[in-house]
Design brief:
By secondary structure, the protein is α+β, with helices and mostly antiparallel strands. The chain is built from 19 helices and 15 strands.
Length: 644
């Protein structure tokens, strides 16, 4: 079949090309004349079972067997079993050469290097099915002197489409046109196309002999001084046999490559599945990617969306001036662009532009690839080549796509372990702060009771003694005045104790629920501080879990305390609604505002310590918190917690 899937006869163009080899009239020993031999001019056909016709004297069947042994037997038969003077192979492709080296098979007669170079130049300038080389051609080496040579380049099969970046000298032989070059190495490895070696400049055919993408799997070279029609037909049979052998070898190698790739991917997945330390997993992923793509520099950033920062998780062979402990803002640079857009980048040579700021000028080729886990971007893999011996191309993206997909699945244990460690650390910090807060609360309550309630009760006690003495002296009026004062003091003490009890556990929260408790708190803030409160509640909000209600109330209480102490606000707006599976609490004031980044990073004063503690409390419940504020523009705190 041709490249469009149509059935074609591979022998007809071969027969047409090599007829020029024949000397004299086209006659046969079996008879003369055109009419008698017209049917015999057609190429010999295989029998119905796929085997070649034994009447032609061809000693091989359609079964190929071991490729090296089959080709060795074919060449031996051409040299000794026929009237050909010599038969060779030339231009074995990279895969076939590696196969021969693994087999340590050195019995194949190969054309000399100068003959291969000449054949390459002829193939680059011609799209004929068979090259016919006369002995006296200008520039031809001595190998072709005084003899006629037929060269049949066995076409290499195409597996998959690729980058189309290389303007190969042999692209019209591969595709029929000089418009692109399909890389059939794409599904397996990055290959070594001209684009990867040298993105610009003149193409040298001599280098194409080592190219993994040369669209010739091997060339059959047969020599004879004078050719007859029988010689042409035998040559055609040998071409067909050679094509069968190389096709069979291609599919064997294809299966082996797939098995090796699957095996490598399985090993990577198994290894990543065993790793529980996140940094160790990142180092293993980086080293594997660098080995597969022949990179000499690499790093992995972890992207923290909340802070908008990139932090090093793994690195190798970075410049000495790179501080791997310092986070980077995801605002400029290659990795930042990839993190924000979730798309890979390939850059060649020195690049200009603010979005690429920070690339090392020593890097000749760079690739940056986003890393995902369960559909969420968590990092960026960066690879670089500085030695100038290679380049990245689109084919490398396919390798990284499969590697990172399997690696991310295998890193599940590392992610779980990392998440457990973070939650455990968060739990320990929060527990310590809760204990400290409890002690502070006890001290505050004891101080309030001692300084206010106890002192007031002692005063009432002495005043009651004075009333008793006045009554004994029958000074009823004075005694009545003292009793009224004692009554006012007792009422104030009762109010103070009720406020203390409400702060500890508001009864309205247990009796009526979260919404009335928030409303009551806002009313008390307006009565005590003059801060007007507005409460907006989703109508569909009902049936809240009591523990969730208490947790949200404490979060709101912490926000209200910060407003009372620091905001200098006159209005507070509270919203409570559902968003999917989350319950969202929003508290907004018109106060002085602040820089939330400095506060949450611990750079501010202790005035907003409660907000840092609040964030940890929210994260412990599996929720998220966002603070929107600027100096002079008020503050909005948005908390979303799972409502399940």
């Amino acid at each position: 079949m041709d490249r469009e899937g149509k059935q074609v006869d591979p022998l007809v163009p071969v027969f047409t090309s090599v007829r020029v080899l024949m000397d004299g009239p086209e006659t046969e020993e079996r008879g003369e004349g055109r009419d008698q031999s017209s049917a015999e001019e057609r190429p010999p056909r295989p029998s119905g079972d796929g085997h070649l016709d034994p009447k032609m004297g061809f000693p091989f069947t359609g079964e190929v067997g071991e490729p090296a042994e089959s080709l060795s037997g074919l060449l031996h038969w051409l040299r000794s079993g026929t009237r050909f003077k010599a038969a060779y192979l030339a231009l074995p492709n990279t895969t076939f050469r590696q196969y021969l080296q693994r087999r340590r098979f050195d019995r194949l007669p190969l054309a000399p290097p100068e003959a291969e170079d000449y054949i390459l130049r002829r193939l680059a300038s011609s799209d004929e099915g068979v090259l016919v080389i006369e002995g006296g051609e200008e520039g031809a080496p001595d190998f072709f002197s005084g003899i006629k040579t037929a060269v049949y380049p066995v076409p290499g099969r195409v597996v998959a489409g690729g980058c189309r970046r290389a303007e190969c000298l042999f692209s019209r032989r591969a595709l029929g046109v000089r418009k692109g070059f399909l890389c059939w190495e794409t599904p397996f490895h990055s290959g070594d196309c001209c684009f990867k070696r040298d993105a610009g400049g003149e193409r040298d055919p001599a280098r194409c002999k080592e190219c993994a993408l040369l669209p010739v799997s091997v060339a059959l070279v047969v020599q004879k001084e004078k050719w007859s029609r029988e010689d042409v037909m035998l040559f055609m049979l040998a071409c067909e046999r050679c094509s069968l052998v190389m096709d069979d070898f291609f599919f064997q190698d294809l299966n082996e490559r797939r098995q090796r790739m699957d095996s490598a991917v399985s090993r990577i997945a198994a290894r990543m599945g065993e790793v529980t330390d996140f940094r160790q997993a990142m180092n293993h992923l980086l080293s594997t990617a660098m080995a597969l793509l022949a990179a000499d520099r690499g790093s992995i950033y972890v992207y923290e969306e909340q802070s908008g920062e990139l932090r090093f998780a793994a690195w190798h062979n970075l410049p000495e001036d790179v501080d791997v402990n310092a986070p980077r803002r995801a605002e400029s640079g290659i990795a930042a662009w990839v993190a924000r857009h979730g798309k890979p980048l390939i850059l060649q040579d020195r690049v200009e532009g603010e979005e690429y700021r920070g690339i090392d000028p020593q890097v000749r080729s760079a690739i940056s690839y986003p890393l995902f886990h369960r559909g969420e971007l968590f990092g960026v893999l960066n690879l670089g080549i500085t030695d100038g011996k290679g380049r990245f191309c689109e084919a490398d993206l396919h390798v990284l796509e499969r590697l990172t997909a399997v690696g991310s699945m295998g890193m599940e244990n590392a992610f779980l372990h990392r998440s457990m460690e973070e939650k455990e650390q968060l739990h320990r910090r929060l527990l310590a702060k809760i204990i400290s807060a409890q002690e502070d609360e006890r001290k505050r309550i004891a101080s309030d009771i001692h300084d206010d309630t106890i002192q007031s009760l002692i005063s009432c006690f002495y005043q009651l003694e004075a009333v008793e003495m006045l009554l004994e002296e029958e000074a009823t009026g004075k005694a009545l005045d003292l009793l009224k004062g004692i009554k006012r003091d007792l009422q104030r003490n009762i109010t103070c104790m009720r406020r203390l009890l409400f702060d500890l556990r508001p009864s309205i929260l247990d009796d009526a629920g979260l919404v009335p408790a928030l409303e009551d708190y806002l009313n008390r803030m307006e009565e005590e501080l003059g801060i007007r409160g507005f409460l907006y509640v989703d109508e569909k909000l009902n049936g809240l879990d009591s523990e969730l209600g208490v947790s949200l109330y404490r979060m709101a209480q912490e926000i209200f305390n910060n407003i009372r102490k620091h905001a200098r606000a006159t209005e507070v707006e509270v919203k409570l609604h559902r968003r999917g599976r989350h319950l969202v609490l929003s508290v907004k004031d018109n106060g002085v505002g602040f820089d939330p980044r400095k506060i949450l990073e611990g750079q501010g004063s202790d005035e907003h310590f409660g907000l840092r503690s609040l964030r940890e409390r929210v994260e412990l419940t599996g929720g998220e918190m966002e603070i929107i504020s600027e100096p002079g523009k008020g503050t909005e705190v948005v908390i979303a917690v799972p409502a399940v």
